[in-house]
Amino acid sequence: MTPDIIIRGERVVTTAGVHPASIHVCDGVIAAIKARDEVPGECAVFDAGRSVVMPGQVDTHVHINEPGRTNWEGFETATRAAAAGGVTTLVDMPLNSIPATTTRESLEAKIAAAKGHCWVDVGFWGGVVPGNTPQLRRLWDAGVLGFKCFLIHSGVDEFCHVAEVDLETALAELTALGAVLIVHAELPGPIDEALRKQAAGAASDPRRYSTFLESRPREAENEAVALLMRLLQRLARTVRGTPHAGPWVHVVHHSSADALPLLRKAREDGLPITAETCPHYLRFAAEEIPDGATEFKCCPPIRERENRELLWAALSEGLIEMVVSDHSPCPPELKLREFGDFMRAWGGISSLQLRLPVMWTEAQRRGYGLRELAKWLCSAPAGLVRLRDHKGSISPGCDADLVVWNPEASFRVDSAMLHHRHKLTPYAGEVLSGIVETTFLRGRKIYDGGQFPAGPIGAMLKRGNP
Predict the structure, then answer these.
(1) N or C: which end of the chain has fewer CB within 10 A?
(2) Rounded to an integer, what distance in angstroms lies between the CA atom of residue 364 and that of residue 2?
(3) Which ranges of 31-180 would DSSP assign to H, the alpha helix?
């Protein structure tokens, strides 16, 4: 069969390594990977030259906020930013949309809002909140790729956090379904105690980043990970011999290096717990954040320089398996930039379009290469949502989702270049390496040198029907 298009280059990142190759695409799927010059004369060819050809990135942690808070972000703006950043698959968080994705009906409302407005493929997380355990199977049957909960106030009242009893009930149901639960793993106790100490002590300056950092201590994450381990141990004993050997729990946006020994112990004990981190935890350091620069605020917080390097070591070890954006935008006025008040500003970082260059800039400084980058940004996130047979890899049978980018080129981040709805970001002015040139979704160009030639051809991804 003659391919619809062949995409070839000198540096193609496949499961076999980085080498010259030609990717033969039929009906949007990779049909074969052949030698670079093995190209039928009558076939359309895209030649990447010395630019890197990598799998389209998979970002499983994105807050698109539509419907209900489309003035914060939206499917159209978020997915255009994704395409410009070489991201071809997003999984949307169940908050901060209104309604939150905690019922089948709210999922249907979200899908209706997304259809016809997505430049990349989009899947959905369902939400776990107190009292919605009967809804979980309905959401699962409707196609969510997994579920999300908070162990602390989420920041929005319509998505309540769960207590231990709620979590245990939900995990039992998710075990029966075989679904993954991703967890915002901070417990309120250590944070409440830190705030009490701040209130009882000398007046703390809310413009200083150190004031905010002290209010979100590492203990909140450490104790949350310990709680998840206890629940997994308890539930594993009750489900032995069933089709699923226990619930799979994934810790999102992990930032505390102090909890890494706990995660290592969990792995040694065979507990099904995995973890991710984010580019901002691997790029920035608390000591370098200027007073009043509330665009850096996120929860958990960006921590100290030594903590950052321990996260890199955990990523290298495979203890932390992936890096996702946690793109969590808001209107600039909610960042209170004119006041510089870290304690009252919205916590969330806009970064969806910049994940690849941020990670490449920092990874190459530490001696990591293209294969590690593809694992962290593509194949591991695809595995989390069980899309590895279709996404995150340049392999026969996978969708022809590809990003072509120049790893030697650098640029200074100008907010005007960003396609997110709002442009305030801590990366403004940063010099980054790696320029995305062209993005393909199922063999079609969706981004090419600043243009979006294909229009919103992204599909809605549902469990069992990718």
Answers:
(1) N
(2) 38
(3) 75-84, 104-114, 133-142, 164-177
Q: Is it true that the peptide bond before 99 is cis, omega within 30 degrees of 0?
A: yes
Would you say 84 and 419 are in contact if contact means Cβ atoms under 8 Å apart? yes
CB of 277 closer than 8 Å to CB of 311 = yes
Q: Is the dihedral of CA 146, 420, 57, 371 positive or negative?
A: negative
Question: What sign does the CA torsion over 237, 183, 265, 319 have?
Answer: positive
Which pair of tokens denotes residue 345? 């500003």
| pLDDT of 240 above 60 | no
Ramachandran region of residue 420, left (φ > 0), alpha (ψ -120 to 50) or beta?
A: beta
Calpha distance 143→442 (Å, rounded): 21
pTM to 2 decimal places: 0.96
Residue 11 C-alpha from the chain's centroid: 25
Q: Which amino acid is at 61?
A: H
- The Cβ of residue 57 has, within 10 Å, a number of other Cβ atoms equal to 32
* Position 241 pLDDT exceeds 70: no
Determine the Cα–Cα distance for residues 423 and 397; give it in Å rounded to an integer: 37
For residue 48 the two structure tokens come to: 């990447």
pLDDT for the residue 245? 53
φ/ψ (deg, to 5) at 217: -65, 160
How many alpha carbons lie under 13 Å from residue 378 in its C-beta half-sphere? 31
| pLDDT score recorded for residue 243 | 41
pLDDT of residue 192: 97
The 10s digit of each residue's pLDDT in 176-198 is 999 999 999 999 999 999 999 99
Would you say how long the chain is, in residues? 466
Q: What SS3 state is found at 186?
A: coil
333 or 246: which leads in pLDDT = 333
Residue for token pair 């309540």: 160
Q: Which helix (H) or strand (E) holds 408?
A: strand 402-412
Which DSSP state fits 417? G
pLDDT of residue 244: 42
The fraction of the chain above a pLDDT of 90, given in percent, is 93
Tally of CB atoms within 10 A around 272: 18
How far lies 274's CA from each of 228, 277, 422, in Å?
A: 11, 11, 32
Domains and CATH numbers, the chain: 58-387+408-430 (3.20.20.140)
The one-character DSSP state at 286 is G
Q: Which of 82, 138, 166 is nearest to 463 (CA)?
A: 138
Q: Cis omega (within 30 of 0) on the bond before 272?
A: no
**The two three-digit tokens of residue 420, written as one number:** 């997110």
Contact 202, 247 (CB under 8 A): no
Strands 17-26 and 57-62 come out as unpaired
Annotate 4-70 with DSSP letters as a single string: SEEEEEEEEEETTEEEEEEEEEETTEEEEEE-TT---TTS-EEE-TTSEEEEPEEEEEE---TTT-T
